Fold this sequence. Notes:
Layout: H1 21-43, H2 53-57, H3 65-86, H4 98-108, H5 111-124, E1 129-136, E2 139-146, H6 155-158, E3 163-169, H7 176-179, H8 183-190, H9 196-202
Helix pairs in contact: 1-3, 4-5
The protein binds manganese (III) ion.
Amino acid sequence: MAHELPSLPYPKEALEPHIDAATMEIHHGRHHKAYVDNLNKAISGTPLESKSLDALLSDLASVPDNIRVAVRNNGGGHWNHSFFWRLMAPNAGGAPAGKLAEDINAAFGSFADFQAKLEVAGIGRFGSGWVWLVVNGGKLEIVSTANQDNPLMGKAIAGCEGKPLLGVDVWEHAYYLKYQNKRADYLKAWWNVVNWAEVAKNY
Ligand code: MN3
Protein backbone atom coordinates (compact mmCIF):
# COMPACT_ATOMS: atom_id res chain seq x y z
CA MET A 1 0.00 0.00 0.00
CA ALA A 2 1.25 3.44 -0.83
CA HIS A 3 2.54 5.64 1.96
CA GLU A 4 0.22 8.48 2.90
CA LEU A 5 0.63 12.00 4.22
CA PRO A 6 -0.81 11.99 7.76
CA SER A 7 -3.09 14.86 8.76
CA LEU A 8 -1.71 17.39 11.19
CA PRO A 9 -2.98 16.51 14.69
CA TYR A 10 -4.05 20.16 15.21
CA PRO A 11 -4.97 23.14 13.00
CA LYS A 12 -2.05 24.81 11.21
CA GLU A 13 -2.40 27.98 13.30
CA ALA A 14 -2.53 26.06 16.61
CA LEU A 15 1.15 26.54 17.41
CA GLU A 16 1.09 30.33 17.00
CA PRO A 17 2.88 32.49 17.96
CA HIS A 18 5.84 30.12 18.28
CA ILE A 19 5.42 28.33 14.95
CA ASP A 20 3.43 30.36 12.44
CA ALA A 21 0.55 29.01 10.34
CA ALA A 22 2.23 29.74 6.99
CA THR A 23 5.29 27.72 7.98
CA MET A 24 3.10 24.83 9.13
CA GLU A 25 1.04 24.89 5.94
CA ILE A 26 4.06 24.86 3.62
CA HIS A 27 6.08 22.48 5.80
CA HIS A 28 3.32 19.89 6.03
CA GLY A 29 1.41 20.42 2.79
CA ARG A 30 4.37 20.84 0.46
CA HIS A 31 7.62 19.60 2.02
CA HIS A 32 6.24 16.56 3.83
CA LYS A 33 3.87 15.77 0.94
CA ALA A 34 6.80 15.82 -1.49
CA TYR A 35 8.72 13.29 0.65
CA VAL A 36 5.71 10.97 0.64
CA ASP A 37 5.12 11.34 -3.11
CA ASN A 38 8.80 10.83 -3.96
CA LEU A 39 9.09 7.81 -1.67
CA ASN A 40 6.08 6.21 -3.35
CA LYS A 41 7.54 6.98 -6.78
CA ALA A 42 10.91 5.44 -5.84
CA ILE A 43 9.51 2.13 -4.58
CA SER A 44 6.62 1.81 -7.03
CA GLY A 45 6.58 -1.60 -8.69
CA THR A 46 9.24 -3.04 -6.35
CA PRO A 47 8.84 -5.53 -3.49
CA LEU A 48 9.64 -2.65 -1.11
CA GLU A 49 6.08 -1.41 -1.58
CA SER A 50 4.87 -3.92 0.99
CA LYS A 51 7.47 -3.02 3.66
CA SER A 52 6.65 -0.74 6.56
CA LEU A 53 8.47 2.59 6.71
CA ASP A 54 10.34 1.55 9.88
CA ALA A 55 11.45 -1.69 8.24
CA LEU A 56 12.63 0.17 5.13
CA LEU A 57 14.70 2.70 7.07
CA SER A 58 16.26 0.25 9.49
CA ASP A 59 17.52 -1.89 6.61
CA LEU A 60 18.60 0.57 3.91
CA ALA A 61 21.46 -1.77 2.97
CA SER A 62 18.90 -4.13 1.43
CA VAL A 63 17.41 -1.39 -0.77
CA PRO A 64 18.69 -1.63 -4.37
CA ASP A 65 21.50 0.81 -5.23
CA ASN A 66 19.52 2.70 -7.84
CA ILE A 67 16.82 3.83 -5.39
CA ARG A 68 18.70 3.77 -2.06
CA VAL A 69 19.38 7.51 -1.95
CA ALA A 70 15.77 8.31 -2.85
CA VAL A 71 14.45 5.97 -0.15
CA ARG A 72 16.91 7.32 2.42
CA ASN A 73 16.05 10.97 1.74
CA ASN A 74 12.31 10.70 1.13
CA GLY A 75 11.58 7.81 3.46
CA GLY A 76 13.59 9.59 6.14
CA GLY A 77 11.71 12.81 5.40
CA HIS A 78 8.36 11.05 5.71
CA TRP A 79 9.29 9.33 8.99
CA ASN A 80 10.89 12.40 10.55
CA HIS A 81 7.99 14.73 9.81
CA SER A 82 5.30 12.22 10.85
CA PHE A 83 7.18 11.95 14.16
CA PHE A 84 7.73 15.72 14.46
CA TRP A 85 4.08 16.82 14.11
CA ARG A 86 3.06 14.61 17.02
CA LEU A 87 5.83 16.00 19.23
CA MET A 88 4.21 19.41 19.15
CA ALA A 89 0.86 20.55 20.52
CA PRO A 90 -0.97 23.77 21.36
CA ASN A 91 -0.82 24.84 25.02
CA ALA A 92 2.12 22.53 25.53
CA GLY A 93 5.72 23.14 26.61
CA GLY A 94 6.74 23.23 30.22
CA ALA A 95 8.85 20.39 31.53
CA PRO A 96 8.69 16.60 31.39
CA ALA A 97 7.44 14.61 34.39
CA GLY A 98 7.97 11.24 36.01
CA LYS A 99 10.66 8.82 34.97
CA LEU A 100 11.52 10.75 31.82
CA ALA A 101 12.22 13.87 33.90
CA GLU A 102 14.32 11.92 36.40
CA ASP A 103 16.35 10.27 33.65
CA ILE A 104 16.90 13.56 31.80
CA ASN A 105 18.20 15.09 35.03
CA ALA A 106 20.46 12.09 35.63
CA ALA A 107 21.84 12.08 32.08
CA PHE A 108 22.31 15.82 31.49
CA GLY A 109 22.51 17.38 34.98
CA SER A 110 19.18 19.22 34.92
CA PHE A 111 16.33 20.00 32.56
CA ALA A 112 17.92 23.40 31.81
CA ASP A 113 21.23 21.69 30.98
CA PHE A 114 19.40 19.28 28.69
CA GLN A 115 17.72 22.17 26.89
CA ALA A 116 21.02 24.02 26.51
CA LYS A 117 22.77 20.92 25.13
CA LEU A 118 20.00 20.22 22.64
CA GLU A 119 20.09 23.84 21.46
CA VAL A 120 23.87 23.68 21.03
CA ALA A 121 23.53 20.48 19.00
CA GLY A 122 20.82 22.08 16.84
CA ILE A 123 22.79 25.24 16.23
CA GLY A 124 25.91 23.18 15.54
CA ARG A 125 24.31 21.07 12.82
CA PHE A 126 25.80 22.66 9.70
CA GLY A 127 23.27 23.04 6.89
CA SER A 128 20.11 20.97 7.09
CA GLY A 129 19.26 18.22 9.54
CA TRP A 130 17.73 17.18 12.81
CA VAL A 131 18.64 17.04 16.47
CA TRP A 132 17.37 14.12 18.54
CA LEU A 133 16.94 12.82 22.05
CA VAL A 134 17.38 9.06 21.80
CA VAL A 135 17.58 6.15 24.17
CA ASN A 136 20.52 4.02 23.14
CA GLY A 137 21.42 0.91 25.13
CA GLY A 138 19.28 2.19 28.00
CA LYS A 139 21.01 5.60 28.07
CA LEU A 140 19.60 8.98 27.04
CA GLU A 141 21.74 10.77 24.44
CA ILE A 142 21.51 13.90 22.29
CA VAL A 143 22.58 13.27 18.71
CA SER A 144 22.14 15.01 15.37
CA THR A 145 21.80 13.88 11.79
CA ALA A 146 22.27 15.52 8.40
CA ASN A 147 19.52 16.00 5.83
CA GLN A 148 16.63 13.56 6.48
CA ASP A 149 18.72 10.86 8.11
CA ASN A 150 17.53 9.53 11.46
CA PRO A 151 18.79 7.19 14.18
CA LEU A 152 16.72 4.26 12.85
CA MET A 153 19.13 4.10 9.91
CA GLY A 154 21.94 3.15 12.25
CA LYS A 155 25.48 4.31 12.88
CA ALA A 156 26.95 3.33 9.52
CA ILE A 157 24.50 5.55 7.63
CA ALA A 158 23.21 8.20 10.01
CA GLY A 159 26.25 8.39 12.30
CA CYS A 160 24.12 7.54 15.35
CA GLU A 161 21.65 4.98 16.57
CA GLY A 162 18.97 4.50 19.19
CA LYS A 163 15.25 4.92 19.60
CA PRO A 164 14.14 8.52 19.00
CA LEU A 165 12.11 10.08 21.81
CA LEU A 166 12.18 13.63 20.48
CA GLY A 167 13.43 15.21 17.26
CA VAL A 168 13.64 18.83 16.15
CA ASP A 169 13.76 19.83 12.51
CA VAL A 170 16.55 22.39 11.99
CA TRP A 171 16.14 22.75 8.21
CA GLU A 172 15.65 26.41 7.28
CA HIS A 173 12.18 25.56 5.92
CA ALA A 174 11.13 24.79 9.52
CA TYR A 175 11.72 28.35 10.73
CA TYR A 176 12.87 30.79 8.04
CA LEU A 177 9.55 32.62 7.43
CA LYS A 178 9.29 33.69 11.06
CA TYR A 179 12.84 33.52 12.39
CA GLN A 180 14.87 34.10 9.20
CA ASN A 181 18.47 33.06 9.91
CA LYS A 182 17.98 32.96 13.71
CA ARG A 183 17.93 29.22 14.30
CA ALA A 184 18.78 29.76 17.96
CA ASP A 185 15.58 31.81 18.46
CA TYR A 186 13.51 29.11 16.78
CA LEU A 187 15.01 26.42 19.02
CA LYS A 188 14.27 28.50 22.13
CA ALA A 189 10.69 29.06 20.98
CA TRP A 190 10.25 25.37 20.19
CA TRP A 191 10.27 24.53 23.92
CA ASN A 192 6.87 26.24 24.12
CA VAL A 193 5.24 23.70 21.81
CA VAL A 194 6.91 20.43 22.82
CA ASN A 195 4.37 17.80 23.82
CA TRP A 196 6.06 16.06 26.75
CA ALA A 197 3.26 13.52 27.11
CA GLU A 198 4.07 12.28 23.60
CA VAL A 199 7.82 12.21 24.32
CA ALA A 200 7.13 10.17 27.46
CA LYS A 201 5.00 7.78 25.39
CA ASN A 202 7.97 7.24 23.08
CA TYR A 203 10.19 6.42 26.05
MN1 MN3 B 1 11.17 19.75 7.62
